[in-house]
Structures are given as C-alpha cells and as structure tokens.
Give the backbone structure.
Amino acid sequence: MSSIMISRIRQKQISQMIASGKRLDGRGLTDYRPIKIETGIIEKAEGSARVLMGRTEVVVGVKVELGEPFPDRPNEGVLTVNSEFVPLASPEFEAGPPSEESIELARVIDRGIRESQAIELEKLCLIPGKKVYVIFIDIYVLNHDGNLIDASALASLAALINTKIPVYVVENGEIKKTSEYMPLPMRNYPIAITFANISDKLVIDPWLEEEEIMNARLTITFDKDGRICAIQKGGQGALTPQQIIEAAYIAREKAEELRMLVVKN
C-alpha cells in the first residue's frame, strides 16, 4: 500500500474522530498539547525564550539597538518582527527568501504585540525624532508539528518579558551608554489562540496532520484584560458567524490559562 493511501486513510480517521468529538492523540477538541517554556537561553540576546508545544519547537531572540523613529511616531521606539523557518524543521521549508507562511507568521505576531500596546514604546525614546530604542524580535521555527502561530506568540511574549535593555543617558545632546540594564517596559501580555475548522468542529492547537485536513484556520489574540486585539483567518474554507463567536468565548478562557504559564515562568 502506498504512503499516499496510508495518509488518506489516516486523514479520514482523524476527520471522523473529530466529527465525533475526539482526537487521534487523545486530547479534547479544546485542549492544548503539553507546553514547556524556557527563558534566557541565548546568551548574546537581550532576551530569549524557547517554547515546546507538543513536538512543535520555536525559539525567539530579542535584540535591542539604537536607531531612528518612524516619521509619524517621533516619540516612540520601533518594533520589528521577523520569522525564519529553519529548513531542518520541516521537509516543506526551503532556504532562501521568506515564504508567504513565514511572512504571515511574523505579521500575526507583530499585530498582537502592537495592537495590544504590549511594549510601552513611548518610554523607549531618547531624543524625539532622532534617536530611539529599536526592538527586534526574531522567531526561529526549529521543528514544525503544527500551530506555529500560538507557539511563536507565546515564545515572543516570554522573550520580551525576559528582555533587559541597556540604559542610555542624554547629556548635552549626546547619548552615552551606562553599565546598567533595565527590564523592557511592558504594559500588556497578548496571547494568541488558534483554531482549525475540521468536519465543522472547532479544534484548538491543531497539530500538523490536523492542519493538513482543516478547511479554515482562525487565530484570535487577547490582551490581559480579555479584549480582542487581533484576528487572523487562514485557509480556503469559511467560518460561520456562530463559529467565530463560539471561538471567541473559548479563546478568551484559554488565553488566561496560557498567560499564567508565561507570566509565572
């Protein structure tokens, strides 16, 4: 029997189990895989974190430099998010320019952080219009076994909380670096919760084989006050208004659970 046929049989099995309210790996429809968070793992970065979500593995490093602010935000620091799919992480990942999936991942993580106003960017201005802190968040996918968005969002938040930035002082218009470091000023802690729509059922934290048969994906990001700050729809299929409302209620509770893992870490 060919591997393609085996795969089709397995996909049908996964779909049928989800239709009956069960999952092949034993989880409930709204259960996450085991999550492990480590911080401070990259010595040369200002902040870093590693997240294992089942077999999905993501590492995030935060680098801090000085640069110019955006012209329309002269009194705020700058945030930049990039993601890289390491070729060893999946047979589908290739070396070269960022793929559409990699670009989407970075944008979803960026939007959650930015729209929740997680970082107090106004506190990262040294000389208005001239010199500010620039925060680089670099996401590295080391092993892809599904739900890269939630794992990356969790790792990014953990890395930001772990970040220590160098303290600069401005004297007579000149910027001087001191020997001191301070925590990155944070005011919010956004958490992304991702669903797959399979057999008209909403499934949280889809692993890779579930992602292969889903017809739509929905990611909802909540801030610490339980407010939606970002939504991203993926896949070719559609979601009903009722499914979206249901997802929002479930995601709000799940976001609180995951946030406790990061903040307490």
